[in-house]
Every structure is written in structure tokens, then in C-alpha cells.
Amino acid sequence: MAKILLVDDNEANGKLIISGVESGCHDVTWVQESYWEDAAKKVADAAKNREWDILILDIHYPNDKEGGIWLYHELVQLGLRKKWRDTIVYSIYVTPGWETSEDDEMAKVLSGFTKSAGIPPNCVLSSSDFDKATLVEKCDELMRQH
């Protein structure tokens, strides 16, 4: 069983993810905030006495299309990166060819972020065709690697 930290501002997405991941017998801590700055504070508070196997992070915030990226960097700056082992990110900006796109500015930002954060391409999911089974499979795969 994986201990998972889910950070997503969207209630519908959060419930969908939790229902899928918990059906795979994983334990989920969900941080739901509309602003990435508030989410960072909640994660920091939860991390005082908790560690996770996997961080599942939504990149797009309604008030900041790069909010999840800023959130990730803030957690790293706070010294919290050691509080989780693996990272899965999902975004509306993940489209076919996103890793090498020269035309899509947000895809270039996402590619640069995931490379600098050491997040492998197979842990970057599209939220436009997101399904619970894919996420559960990815969590199980990451757990089998350790």
C-alpha cells in the first residue's frame, strides 16, 4: 500500500483520483486549495509528522496555469522534497509530442520543469484523458520499483 499526497484544487478531480487510488488500497492525503501558496502551507503543515511514497500534483490552477510548478518549487525550497519518493504530475498541457514541442509555450515550460525536477516522462499524465485505472496502474508500478 502506498501513502499518497494528492495536491489538486479541483474537487471533482480530487474525488475521482481518490476513488481510484483508494480502490487500489492506497492511503491518500488530499490537499485542496484554490491558490498554490495556500496548498504549499497545508502540505508543509501535514509534512511535519508525515511522509509519502508518491506526490500526485495537478499543474494547472485556475488563477495560475503554472501553479503546480510554483507549488513544487516552493516545497523544495522549504526542504520538503525528502518527504516523498516519487512524483506524478498531470496537466491539461500534456498533449501528444509535448516533450519536444517548439510551438506550445506551456508544453515547453512543463518539459523544462519535469526535466529539472527529475520527473520521468512516464510520470507525466494528461488530465484531458485522465482515468482512474491509469493512475492506479502508475502508482502500483512505482511501488513495485521500490
Describe the protein.
- By secondary structure, the chain is α/β, with parallel strands linked by helices.
- It has 5 helices and 5 strands.
- It has a 5-stranded parallel sheet, sandwiched between helices.
- The N and C termini lie close together (12 Å).
- The model has no long low-confidence stretch (mean pLDDT 91).
List the helices and strands and how they pair.
Layout: E1 3-7, H1 11-23, E2 27-31, H2 36-46, E3 52-58, H3 67-77, E4 84-91, H4 105-117, E5 124-126, H5 132-144
Parallel strand pairs: 1-2, 1-3, 3-4, 4-5
Helix pairs in contact: 1-5, 2-3
Short description:
This protein has 5 helices and 5 strands.
Tell me, briefly, the overall form: globular
Rg to the nearest angstrom? 14 Å
Number of helices: 5
The main sheet comes to:
5 strands, parallel
Query: What are the secondary-structure elements, in order, as H or E?
Result: EHEHEHEHEH
Query: In percent, how helical is the residue content?
Result: 40-55%
According to DSSP, the number of beta strands is 5
Structural class: alpha/beta
Mean pLDDT: 91
Low-confidence stretches: none
Residue share in β-strands: 15-25%
**What strand line-up does the widest sheet have?**
2-1-3-4-5
Intertermini distance: 12 Å
